[in-house]
Amino acid sequence: MLKKQYQLAKRQKRWLKITGLIGVVVILLGGLGTWLAQENKAFKMAILRVVSPVVSIHLDPEMVSIPAGTFQQGDSRGEDTLSEHPLRKVHIKKFALGRFEVTFEEYDRFAMATGQAFPGDEGWGRERRPVINVSWEDAGDYAKWLSEGTGRRYRLPTESEWEYAARNRGKDEIWAGTSEQEQLEPYAWFNSNSTGRTQPVGSRQANGLGLQDMSGNVWEWVQDCWHDDYQHAPTNGSAWVEANNGSCGTRVRRGGGWTNDPISLRSSFRNGYNADSRSIQIGFRLAQDID
To answer: Which CATH number is correct for 63-289, 3.30.720.120, 3.40.50.20, 3.30.1490.100, 3.90.1580.10?
Structure first.
């Protein structure tokens, strides 16, 4: 009896050693996997840096075709925001708009190829998060670089194009995807669900046109200069720049961001920001003309 108990205890002890060794191997392999992922990323960036002077290292953005149409631009819900008035009918030609906000993964290739400074990510991560800390000029420079590398003309959307697309061809939707505030969370990252930082693009539901993060995550630069209201604004969907005392040192930003409450995420809400300033709240997405 004692011999059987001794043998059983010996087998249990040996089994504990084996399982312990397996655990150590699993931990080491996990650490090795993480290290290899980091090393592969560094290796990939090194290769891109070497080849960037001779070949384009851009990533093609995913674009969504936006049909032509006419809509009433501005606040029709009585929020009493003077900058969103007077209401007017605007005709939008067919164009394309980026499904996502431009990411660090995309922008970093531009910075590497052109010698621009890499914008800071605040320690939140890069890759598929929307690029931040970029000025209006930076956004325009990126669009120009991408156009040269692809042979296709990219640009910032106009303010009218942006609102038309956010509102799913100009429908009377308060936010991009819904008019019910209690339904906003599945569509947008904002102050109550963002955990105090940007989030990877495309991780919320799209609006009716398949565009994601049009409300929230980061504010988005558009082409237009700042005007205090829509008095004398163009009705053909073009950018409103110097005409009628446009303040072009301040450019329009749209969509609201991760720090804002729902009122600032409304599709008609507009705000201006210094064109040469950078912010942890502002990024951009691209537009493209369609003949």
So the answer is: 3.90.1580.10
The confidence band for 53, taking pLDDT boundaries of 50, 70 and 90, is low
pLDDT for 43 = 65
Residue 29 has a pLDDT of 45
C-alpha closest to that of 223 among 143, 144, 154, 136: 136
Residue 138 · residue 117 · CB < 8 Å: no
From the CA atom positions of the chain, what is the Rg in Å? 25
Phi and psi for 37 in degrees, rounded to 5? -60, -45
Q: 261, 157, 267, 259: which is closest to 208 by C-alpha? A: 267
Q: In what order do the strands lie in the sheet with 270-274?
A: 270-274, 247-254, 219-226, 282-283
- CA dist 253 and 132 (Å) reads 13
pTM for the predicted model, two decimal places = 0.85
- Longest distance between any two alpha carbons in the chain, whole Å: 101
Strands 287-289 and 154-155: antiparallel
* Cross-strand partners of 289: 95
Q: pLDDT (tens digit, 9 = 90+) per residue, 117-168? A: 999 999 999 999 999 999 999 999 999 999 999 999 999 999 999 999 999 9
Burial 260-280 (b: 16+ CB within 10 A, else e): bebebbbbbbbbbbebeebbb
